[in-house]
TrEMBL record:
Keywords: ANK repeat. The keyword Nucleotidyltransferase does not apply. It comes from the Eukaryota. InterPro entries: Ankyrin_rpt, Ankyrin_rpt-contain_sf, P-loop_NTPase. It comes from Leishmania utingensis. The keyword Hydrolase does not apply. ANK repeats lie at residues 257-289. This is Dynein heavy chain region D6 P-loop domain/Ankyrin repeat (3 copies)/Ankyrin repeat. It holds the Pfam family Ank_2.
Length: 346
């Protein structure tokens, strides 16, 4: 079982400098790798987490049967800002962390729903050092290593965190030159950012993402889509007609969940909205793109909706999963009888 640590009385505690720098130079999408042979940084992690009002969930891979437990707490931490601390990661195969790598890589900023997402951090300890540029034998998947920071103390006075550097010599020389230029300018030599020291990198990224999401959400096209979804859900005949006649909504384009307005109304079995959409020119036979299901097969258990579709020109000879609507095994008996009767007169 995981253990949870919340630092309480650490007023006189000095955290390890290399862990401080790793946290400072990372964001919520960056796995931080440390070597347990260098010492136990758990107290330092707890101290740094307390500054963000976060708890630390600790796991030992050697005592776990499945990675799902770790994944569950990472999912929670991504949303509420808690930190995850995992040790003995090199005792299992690299595939153990494949889902973890994919989850961290795909994190998206959602500052309105999850404002503490940017303070989330995760730490992964290995028992002994390993070759960062080795073609095989790495304890983590390549996707994981591409975004990770490796935090280790150095033999020289002071401490620093280290990252994976390119094995190619010219690229390494360029990186070393950049470090030298930063030192000469009095900046943090390991920082790849041109922002001022007082700016939080992930904070700026999240702010800009929020502004972009706001601009998209307030665009004319997006607002019209929201109005159309609301009109269909509330079966507002007047609003549906206005949005279609004004050209703000195209009945042939996807509206929600990969469906056109007509397919969405049929899927939700909103009969009045379906009737209105047919009157303003919706195609009663266009199949849903996701699975090829025609609208008529969305009404196989709703007699009233089936009648509206038949009156609107639905093709009773169309097939889905190899069946016509009146012979499909999921069709309600009364609806099947009605469709079979109507098909005789077509």
């Amino acid at each position: 079982m995981p253990s949870c640590a919340i630092a309480n009385d650490l007023a006189d505690f000095s955290p390890l400098e290399y862990m401080q720098r790793a946290v400072k130079n990372s964001d919520c999408r960056t796995p931080i790798i440390f070597v347990q042979q260098d010492g136990d940084p758990f107290q330092s992690v707890c101290y740094l987490a307390k500054q963000c009002d976060s708890a630390v969930w600790s796991f030992d891979v050697a005592q776990l049967q499945s990675a799902q437990n770790i994944m569950d707490y990472i999912d929670v931490g991504i949303n509420n800002g808690d930190w995850v601390y995992v040790t003995n990661c090199d005792l299992v195969d690299e595939s153990y962390f494949r889902d973890v790598a994919r989850t961290l890589y795909q994190i998206l900023p959602e500052p309105h729903r999850y404002p503490r997402r940017e303070v989330f951090r995760c730490f992964f300890g290995v028992t002994v050092p390993f070759d960062l540029n080795a073609p095989v034998g790495l304890p983590f998947p390549l996707l994981f290593m591409h975004t990770a920071l490796v935090s280790r103390p150095t033999a020289a006075p002071g401490s620093k965190w280290s990252r994976i550097m390119p094995a190619d010599k010219p690229l390494f020389s360029v990186a070393a030159l950049k470090h030298q230029q930063r030192r000469e300018a009095g900046r943090e030599s390991d920082s790849e950012s041109d922002l001022d020291e007082t700016d939080r990198i992930s904070g700026v990224i999240f702010l800009r993402a929020a502004e972009r999401n706001r601009d998209i959400g307030q665009s004319v096209v997006t607002l019209a889509k929201h109005q159309m979804v609301q009109a269909i859900d509330e079966q507002d005949d007047g609003l549906i007609r206005r949005l279609v006649s004004s050209g703000e909504v195209d009945l042939s384009r996807k509206l929600k969940d990969g469906m056109t307005p007509f397919q969405y109304a049929c899927c939700k079995e909103l009969t009045e909205s379906v009737r209105t959409l047919l009157l303003v020119g919706a195609d009663p036979n266009a199949p849903r793109e996701a699975d090829g299901r025609p609208p008529l097969f969305m009404a196989i258990d709703d007699m009233e909706l089936a009648k509206v579709l038949v009156e609107g020109g639905a093709n009773l000879f169309s097939k889905f999963e190899g069946y016509r609507a009146d012979t499909h095994p999921d069709t309600a008996p009364d609806v099947a009888a009605y469709l079979a009767e109507e098909r005789k007169y077509m």
